[in-house]
Design a protein that fits this description.
This protein is α+β, with helices and mostly antiparallel strands and 585 residues long. The chain has helices at residues 56-62, 120-125, 127-130, 134-156, 197-205, 243-262, 275-282, 299-302, 308-311, 329-340, 370-379, 395-412, 490-499, 504-518, 532-540, 570-575; strands at residues 18-31, 34-41, 44-51, 70-79, 92-103, 160-161, 179-181, 189-191, 210-218, 230-239, 272-274, 296-297, 315-321, 350-354, 360-362, 387-393, 423-427, 432-435, 440-443, 470-475, 478-485, 525-531. The chain is 28% helix and 24% strand. The longest helix has 23 residues, at 134-156.
């Protein structure tokens, strides 16, 4: 062995013992005739001491060490005179008696520190160096511990982990598929799975009544902080269950992981909110309920003012920001600029200040009396010192814009503490969503989601009003996971396909294997998939899932380290019977 101990395990009780350590040089400090070297490995940092009086030759060799050199050091453990309380090994140091340089290093392109000087792209290009930073390593250690504990928990509940194929059939109903050409079948393609949905349903038909898998999924969609082209799900399915059974099982899993990782006990059941209420009160199907500022609807109080912005709007909504009446005109103008950004899309913003002395000021004061404005404030339960912010327009669009404004105010007021956790279930999603461009319904989740049993009779008569037996777990404004009870009846599934505009031939071509399986006794079943990367990032207090993935892609879907995607040789293209025409792209 190159080492007898790691750089993170020695304590004062080890004083006097002789040890051998191996690792990377974090930093080196020369102080007179002494050189101090911090040696780092995955487990921590230990200080090494080289004394010119005791061993001049060894001291000279230590002075030649550069950052990130890989070295092996032998020495005696001694108590430090100037202890470092910030690290676990801060009570001891190693008085070096031997040094072996195992490998030299070029000067790294950024400092290997928690507070590094490397930008995102640079760190992604040299990700193998970035992974040496303790902050990044801790994220992957958390990911490892969570994966093991999730497996232990589900195993204790009778779940079997079953692997499903990575090369499957393309069924482009949701996000775009990544496709893989088949050399042995020219002109034909596999797809990478967006989820193991159909396979886990087939496992239910096969009698594997409790399945799970921590599995890679792939979606060719535009990226953002919480999206990657390849991501990991905790994919689960159960037979002979209804919605309540599924929610109880996986609420238990989430509570168990919070206790295991954060020592947080959720003793009460998670709140449940309908999709309709989530949109009405928060403008989002994944509301951040760590703070209030629920929407206040004002349309009926603004009618007939002669102010066209409000008179012509289908919806007028507001939020009340507590204690913000002191916002200056400059701050209010910044908020107006925020809602007018293309990502938000509002045309403008109105405001009413409820001053601490009870007086009222408003950007629309010339159109409304103080009495009318006070009526708005009373509806919003505003108190003296509060600020009301108002948007108007189309109902759904304005609610989504107001949601962005609410989140911005929550951030400005410090109400979105990453160490505070608010969990809830959102239920009763619409089964369908209408697309104006194609003039047809699409499945809001996927075509196998069962309608609410109370709404089945409305499938033909009031299709858009049918609720799904679907549910999402939301934590701090993030969709942690979601699922549904599945359709297990062939006739109901056929009707679902027809409502989605799929002909019998299309349905058979895309999903015939599943429909045929259902003819042989499919049990009632349902399930859920959690975003594993997202779960880890939430518990780590991070905004981006990239920081909990060993080798992530950037926002353009590129791996900066290995420079992928890349062109391939013409000979490979010929073998696959593929021609690339960039002029047509």
């Amino acid at each position: 062995m190159h080492r007898t101990k790691t750089c993170g395990e020695l304590r004062i009780s080890d004083a006097g013992s002789t040890v051998t350590l191996a690792g990377w040089v974090q930093r080196s400090r020369k102080m007179g005739g002494m050189t101090f070297v911090d040696l780092r490995d995955r487990y921590g940092i230990t200080q090494l001491v080289f004394d010119s009086e005791t061993d001049p030759e060894l001291h000279e060799a230590a002075n030649k060490l550069g950052r990130e050199y890989v070295v092996q050091v032998t020495g005696k453990v001694a108590e430090r005179s100037n202890k470092n309380p910030n690290i676990p090994t801060g009570d001891i140091e190693i008085i070096a008696t031997g040094l072996n340089v195992l490998n030299k290093s070029d000067i790294p392109p950024f400092t290997i520190e928690d507070e590094t000087d490397g930008g995102d792209d640079l760190r992604m290009k040299y990700r193998y160096l970035d992974l040496r930073r303790p902050a990044v390593r801790k994220n992957l250690e958390l990911r490892h511990r969570m994966a093991f504990e999730i497996r232990r928990y589900l195993d204790s509940k009778g779940f079997l982990e079953v692997e499903t194929p990575v090369l499957i059939k393309s069924t482009p109903e949701g996000a775009r598929d990544f496709v893989v050409p088949s050399r042995m079948n020219p002109g034909q393609f596999y797809a990478l799975p967006q989820s193991p949905q159909t396979f886990k349903q087939l496992l239910m038909v096969s009698g594997f009544d409790r399945y799970f898998q921590i599995v890679k999924c792939f979606r060719d969609e535009d990226l953002r902080a919480d999206r990657q082209p390849e991501f990991t799900q905790i994919d689960c399915e159960m037979s002979f269950v209804d919605q309540e059974d599924v929610l109880e099982m996986f609420e238990g899993l989430v509570k168990h992981i919070f206790k295991y990782v954060k020592d947080i006990d959720f003793s009460e059941p998670f709140p449940r909110m309908t999709w309709a209420d989530a949109m009405r009160l928060y403008g989002s199907d994944k509301p951040d309920t760590r703070f209030g500022m629920q929407f206040v609807e004002l349309k009926d109080l603004t009618e007939g003012s002669g102010f066209s912005v409000m008179d012509d709007a289908k919806y007028v909504g507001a939020i009340v920001a507590p204690g913000c009446a002191g916002y200056t005109r400059k701050q209010l103008d910044k908020l107006t600029d925020f809602v007018k950004r293309p990502q938000v899309g509002a045309k403008g913003m109105m405001w009413v200040k409820y001053e601490a002395d009870g007086s009222i000021k408003s950007s629309v004061g010339k159109f409304f009396t103080d009495e009318q404005l006070k009526g708005w404030l009373e509806r919003g339960e505003a108190k003296p010192g509060d600020l009301m912010l108002i948007l108007a327009g189309d109902t759904m669009k304005t609610r989504k814009q107001l949601c962005e404004l609410r989140l911005e105010m929550g951030s400005q007021l410090g109400l979105r503490d990453p160490q505070k956790f608010s969990c809830l279930w959102v239920v009763d999603f619409p089964l369908f969503e209408w697309d104006e461009e194609t003039q047809r319904y699409y499945a809001m989740h996927h075509p196998f989601t069962a309608p609410n049993p109370d709404d089945v009779d409305m499938l033909d008569s009031d299709t858009g009003a049918v609720r799904a037996t679907a549910y999402d777990m939301v934590v701090n404004g993030n969709e942690l996971g979601g699922g549904s009870i599945r359709i297990h009846d062939s006739q109901l599934q056929d009707k679902m396909f027809r409502l989605l505009g799929l002909s019998e031939e299309d349905a058979q071509y895309k999903f015939g294997f599943l429909m045929n399986a259902f003819k042989y006794g499919a049990p009632p079943h349902g399930g859920l998939a959690f975003g594993f990367d997202r779960f880890v990032s939430i518990l780590a207090g991070l905004d981006s899932i990239r920081d909990v993935i060993a080798f992530p892609k950037n926002n353009a879907g590129r791996d900066m380290m290995i420079d992928a995607p890349s062109e391939i040789d013409d000979s490979q293209l010929d073998e696959l019977c593929i021609k690339v025409d960039l002029e047509e792209a």
